Amino acid sequence: MKKPELLSPAGDMESFESALKFGADAIYLAGTQFGMRSASKNFTPDELKTAVEAAHSKGVKVYVTCNTLPRNNEIDELPDFMKTVAECGADAFIIADLGVMELAAKYAPSVERHISTQTGIVNYKTAEVLYNMGASRVVLARELSLEEISDLRAKAPKELEIEVFVHGSMCVSFSGRCLISNYLTGRDANRGDCAQPCRWKYHLYEEHRDGQYYPVEESDEGTFLYNSRDLCMIEHIPELVAAGADSLKIEGRAKSAYYTAVVTNAYRHAIDEYLDSDGKGMLSPWILEELEKVSHREYSTGFFFGSEPGQATENGGYIRKYEVVAVCDKYENNTAFLTQRNRFFSGDRLDVLPPSGEPFEIMVDYMMNDKGEAIEVAPHATMKIIMPSNVEIPAGSVLRKQR
Question: Does domain 322-402 have CATH number 2.40.30.10?
Answer without folding.
Answer: yes
